Amino acid sequence: MKQTFQRFTCLLALLVFNLSLFAQNDEGKKNEKPINQYKNEIALDFQNAFRNLVNGFSDDDYNSEAIATSLIFRRRIGEKKFISVNEKKALRLQLGGTFSIPISSEEIYDSTLTGTSNLFNIKESRTDVYSYIGIEWQRQFDKLQVYYGLDSGVRYYKDLDVPTVISSTSGQVNYWREINYRSISIPLIGFAGVKYYFHPRFSLSYELSLGTAISFIKNRQDRFEPGIEGPAEREFNYRRTGISGNSSYLRYFNVSYYF
Questions:
Q1: What confidence tens digit (pLDDT) does each residue in 42-56 have?
Q2: 187 exposed, middle or buried (CB, 10 Å; 0-12, 13-18, 19+)?
Q3: Domain residues of the chain, as ranges?
């Protein structure tokens, strides 16, 4: 009888202990912040670094794309007009770009380009900056979110190339050219993406896009050769307006923080 009572007491104590742990765990879940309940989101884009990691780094990609990034800010709107707690709407603002600035350049022998064994040197610099504003619709499935929307804004691109041919015997400049290309674009971009919340305050997202843009382009090219007196000869200087379309299977690969 005494042993039976001791066993019963031990089982009861074990049951009470397990129930207390379950209650604490259940209370923790109740106090846990639900997924996608914060109004503000700030995201950093790593798509260029991810793309270069997958495809491998080349010299050109490393200079012009590896340091590229975008900063995206989202704020949910229409909180009083939800169709359901899983359907939300957000405004988004994006700032970003790429740049490549030459620090040094190497002179190489190139007989095919000039017909003689001369030194060839090219200095290139590129700037590509943009600012977009858009709206997106979100559909939540527990920790997974599907979203889509539209972006528009302005994009500025500049490409400056200065190839130079130097005599391998005298060291004098035989020829140089300056190519100055600039464009301002106004795009309209449709996008869709998938987002995974690995924490109530953090997520990973993948986004693709399809868009069109109207661009205002200015292109100027100057040339210098021995025997030409005065300023460099201007080969051409033109402006044009064009419409283009583009698609991207990897527009953004974002890490987001919510607050």
A1: 999 887 777 666 665
A2: buried
A3: 40-258
